[in-house]
């Protein structure tokens, strides 16, 4: 093949996914408590007004709610019943109220939250667990997306689609409603909670004393007397979506005190375990309004998700990305614990991570401010391909690449001298200008399918010729 006939190193597709303000979920709305620290709740006086309404007005108001909002929510009636249950103990003779009045109270204790109203960006892509019914050479995928809504709170949404044998992408159109999961408390390991307690700032003596008295495994009620341990135990949990719901209707919202201001930048990867089982793992940044911490997410089917808080010197700050298999008997992950360099971390249990040292630090002009990863490494015959990001002058982001040794990923074999991708003219403007950023690409044959966020305003896709990319990576001096 001549140079003229050779495929381009990278080409952008025509796809542009923009924020969709019609994608809403319902969240609790307790009057007077919607703004933290605003003063006494107005819940009691609002409930008194609702109890005083004539029956006919209650019936009319409820019909209006059901008519206007049923098409926007999965099982709206069930949702209103759940919301009434939140305040039922504050309602005198709640058991004798009519069903209509209870549901109208539930509606007044609810609000819609548009999960993508401010921004949509920073995707990662993995192969779908169901590959049935596809033509030869096609691959179905799941893509995670970061949506930002009112108050700059981030959540994780999902999209699905297919890449065919000719590398043509088709995204499925999400349905008209979104689905949120049910949260489940879990048993906790005393050893794991002790590690978390050791790392958490503040006085830990009382918590240490309680931990010494606990069994190896215990439920969250065992630590209710310790605010510190109760906070830590609430940070690890399971959630389950209704099985009939479509994957692209499912939304992961903040469900713990560590996430109350957002779940950011999920990096998904399919990981092969030593027992032959594979699972989808992801790391994301939990933000509580003051501090950030990487958390682990695991699922086998995108229906049940397990969320765990991580510890160790390698699990700090943002941007962890797990390798798709163990190396040398241990799990490995890319880390940016120092906020500006690419490092390597290792773990025996996916929860506690040791630091194995720096892989790359800011050096070239286009990455001189900081570097990080753009998702989990991709295994190739030549080595572990790591997509990176760099921040340079005017806070412009670029996506680069480096290659790590397959057997000893601490060895950097080479890296791109210049960015693979920088913002084009039509990608520069958005909520955060001059950014291109990905949380994970997917290999399809000899093509790297690279979804990326553009200036925190939209998601686009680039197709990278893998052999051409590997050939361009420069040996390290």
UniProtKB/TrEMBL annotation:
Family indicated by similarity: Belongs to the glycosyl hydrolase 130 family.
Give the UniProt keywords, A-Z. Answer: Glycosyltransferase, Hydrolase, Transferase
Record-linked Gene3D superfamilies: Glycosyl hydrolase domain, family 43
How far does the signal peptide extend, from start to end residue? Answer: none
SUPFAM superfamilies, A to Z: Arabinanase/levansucrase/invertase
Q: What is this protein called?
A: GH43/DUF377 family glycosyl hydrolase
InterPro entries in the cross-refs: Glyco_hydro_beta-prop_sf (IPR023296), Mannoside_phosphorylase (IPR007184)
Which GO molecular function annotations are given, in alphabetical order?
A: hydrolase activity
Asked if the Swiss-Prot or TrEMBL record annotates the protein with the keyword Transferase, the reply is yes
């Amino acid at each position: 093949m001549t140079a003229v006939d050779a495929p381009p190193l990278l080409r952008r597709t025509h796809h542009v996914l923009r924020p969709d303000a019609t994608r809403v979920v319902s969240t609790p709305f307790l009057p007077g408590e919607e703004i933290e620290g605003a003063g006494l709740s107005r819940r009691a006086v609002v409930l008194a007004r609702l109890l005083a309404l004539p029956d006919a007005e209650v019936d009319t108001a409820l019909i209006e709610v059901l008519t206007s909002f049923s098409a926007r929510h999965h099982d709206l009636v069930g949702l209103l019943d759940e919301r009434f249950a939140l305040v039922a103990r504050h309602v005198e003779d709640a058991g004798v109220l009519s069903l209509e009045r209870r549901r109208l109270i539930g509606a007044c204790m609810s609000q819609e939250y548009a999960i993508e109203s401010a921004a949509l960006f920073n995707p990662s892509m993995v192969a779908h667990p169901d590959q049935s019914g596809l033509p030869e050479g096609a691959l179905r995928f799941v893509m995670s997306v970061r949506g930002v809504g009112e108050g700059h709170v981030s959540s994780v949404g999902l999209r699905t689609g297919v890449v065919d044998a000719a590398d043509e992408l088709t995204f499925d159109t999400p349905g008209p409603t979104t689905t949120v999961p049910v949260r489940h408390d879990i048993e906790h390991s005393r050893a794991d909670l002790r590690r978390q307690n050791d790392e958490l700032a503040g006085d830990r003596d009382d918590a240490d004393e309680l931990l010494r008295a606990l069994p190896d495994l215990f439920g969250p009620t065992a630590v209710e007397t310790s605010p510190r341990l109760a906070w830590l135990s609430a940070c690890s949990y399971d959630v389950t979506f209704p099985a009939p719901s479509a994957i692209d209707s499912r939304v992961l919202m903040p469900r713990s005190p560590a996430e109350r201001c957002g779940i950011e930048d999920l990096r998904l990867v399919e990981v092969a375990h030593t027992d032959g089982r594979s699972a989808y793992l992801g790391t994301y940044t939990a933000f509580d309004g003051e501090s950030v911490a990487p958390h682990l997410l695991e699922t086998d089917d995108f229906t049940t998700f397990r969320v765990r808080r991580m510890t160790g010197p390698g699990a700090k700050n943002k941007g962890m990305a797990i390798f798709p298999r163990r190396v040398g008997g241990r799990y490995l992950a890319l880390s940016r614990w120092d906020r500006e360099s690419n490092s390597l971390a290792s773990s025996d249990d996916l929860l506690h991570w040791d630091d194995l040292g720096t892989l790359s630090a800011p050096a070239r002009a286009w990455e001189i401010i900081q570097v990080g990863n753009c998702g989990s490494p991709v295994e190739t015959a030549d080595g572990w391909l790591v997509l990176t990001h760099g921040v340079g002058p005017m806070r412009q982001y670029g996506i680069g690449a480096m290659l790590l040794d397959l057997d000893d990923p601490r060895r950097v074999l080479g890296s791109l001298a210049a960015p693979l991708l920088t913002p084009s003219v039509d990608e520069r403007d958005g909520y955060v200008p001059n950014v291109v950023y990905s949380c994970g690409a997917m290999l399809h044959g000899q093509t790297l399918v690279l979804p990326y966020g553009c200036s925190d305003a939209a998601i686009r896709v680039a197709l990278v010729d893998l052999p051409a990319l590997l050939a361009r990576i420069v040996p390290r001096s």
